[in-house]
């Protein structure tokens, strides 16, 4: 979002739980976050940003695993290739 973060929320929770406490911020870019997608597992997230980069993040630790550079301006979208390995993506 415009706060430069990707937030992950659980879909199942107790009604008495504080939803904000369950939120996990995973990605931190230097400009707005324009797109995000889980990889084939729920352990990694791929993000695109107005800082001109895409990045792969570990959901549990929030650590940056790999950064992808090459756009000369904002990256507005991304999509993963439908494969078992999930090792190819497109961004624009």
Any chance you could write out the topology, listing elements then pairs?
Elements: E1 5-8, H1 19-22, E2 24-28, E3 33-38, E4 44-49, E5 54-58, E6 64-68, E7 78-80, E8 89-91
Antiparallel strand pairs: 1-2, 3-4, 4-5, 5-6, 7-8
Protein architecture, described:
- The structure is a single chain.
- Helices cover 4% and strands 40% of the residues.
- It is mainly beta and 92 residues long.
- The chain has one domain.
- The protein has a four-stranded antiparallel sheet, with no helix packed on it. A two-stranded antiparallel ribbon has the order 1-2.
- Strand 4 (44-49) and strand 5 form a beta hairpin.
- It is globular, with a radius of gyration of 14 Å.
Number of domains: 1
Q: H/E element string?
A: EHEEEEEEE
Instruction: Report the radius of gyration as a whole number of Å.
Output: 14 Å
End-to-end C-alpha gap: 17 Å
The largest sheet has its strands arranged as 3-4-5-6
Fraction in helix: under 10%
> Strand fraction band?
35-45%
Poorly predicted residue ranges: none
Largest β sheet strand count, sense and barrel closure: 4 strands, antiparallel
Instruction: Report the principal-axis shape.
Output: globular
Q: What oligomerization state is this entry in? A: single chain
Question: How many H/I helical runs?
Answer: 1
User: How many strands in all?
Assistant: 8
